[in-house]
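Title: Prediction job returns without error message
Component: structure pipeline
Severity: low
Priority: P3
Assignee: unassigned

Description:
Job completed but the reporter wants confirmation the result is attached to the right record. Sequence as submitted:
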Amino acid sequence: MTDLNENAPLAFSDTIVAAATPHGRGALSVVRLSGKDAHAIARSVVERWPGTARTVRLSTVRDAAGNALDQSLVVRYDAPASFTGEDAVEIITHGGLVVPTTVIAALVAQGARLALPGEFTRRAVLNGKLDILQAEATGDLINASSRASQSAALRQLDGGLSRRVLALRDELIGLEALIAYDIDFPEEDDGPISPERIGRATAKVIDALEQLLATARVGELVREGALVVLAGAPNVGKSSLFNALLGENRAIVTDIPGTTRDAIEAVIDTPALPLRIVDTAGMRDALDPVERLGVEVSGSYVSRAAVVLACGDDAGSLEEIVAAVRARTSAPVVAVRTKGDLGAHDAAADVVVSAETGQGLDALIHIVVRLAGHEVNDYGADTPLLTHERHRYAVSRALDEVRDFDARWQSADLPAPVAAVHLREAVTVLEDLIGAVDVEDVLDEVFRRFCVGK
């Protein structure tokens, strides 16, 4: 019996099968089959086999007893011109639960094994169709919750980050070569390599690694969103503004002070980056223990915010909340005059809004994106970003190793071959990051969070 324990060693000679589309009611479902016996197994259950690769054939799918299961479209892929680099077949069935499940059962009965999460993409990596960074980007694209994270994943899938890491690796290998030449061939025609030349090459690599590492903060913003907190006294219109920004009623809006007892969070997707908008409890000296906890939560959010919208419905409340917020955070504070439809506009307000009429909402979003996204705006649309903690850690380690080499080289307190060990370690770290060497533990971590069928 096939062992489907996720911790069991994978047999990559097996032919695997899974639904590549989610279970549930829908028009179509895609059943994916990959492996050395994919064609033979698929041919045993379909009546009409595609004569050439990458052509679609309408066929009846039958089980081992000859019972018709579905009228499906069959697409054949010949190795290595497939996603996995192996022979593969996609059977496009009708949707729902029963049809794809019975088709998969028929394929398993003919010798296929149910795929584990991420196993198709893992095979693509092992067969050289993708590197690990591109495999991660595949998962990021599937899980993208904003246009910004979608764009970043597509750039990484296209190989932008991979090319940047490989270029840095090549520069480090070039620096290693200079050290090796100086050690092994000091009497050659070119003479010994000058310390200044090695110093310049090292400084160039350090600068490039620092620039790449700096993108980790932007990658985090793109993936997680910028925290934007609505702060203000009770009953100044924070919850109404929150609902208006979202276009739906997420927060309870009443005339009773202290209605919002906890923080309510939602995401607004903008082209630059997602905004995590948080409606907090009114900031005041609360007597109710529950409300007091809500006020403490509000203060915590304010201290961590990328941007704070200090809300007030008149000049006095606006000035008071702006002062209170600035005492709690170094983040940009936008003075928002709420209930703009009711009359007076305060000179102290950065923007006047009305949840009732929609006045000022577009201007407010524009201001927030400009303030929260200034780090994102510093980078071009094609700039590769470090989007995972694994990326940040690897580049940080490589940078530390090159800095250690530079310090040893400048001080000359170690022989050159010993100092150059730091360069070799930096190269190894970058190779691990991109998967240029065999690192099973890295593969396990990358594909652990993948869905079955991908």
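Comment from assignee: result matches the submitted record. DSSP finds 16 helices and twelve strands in the chain.
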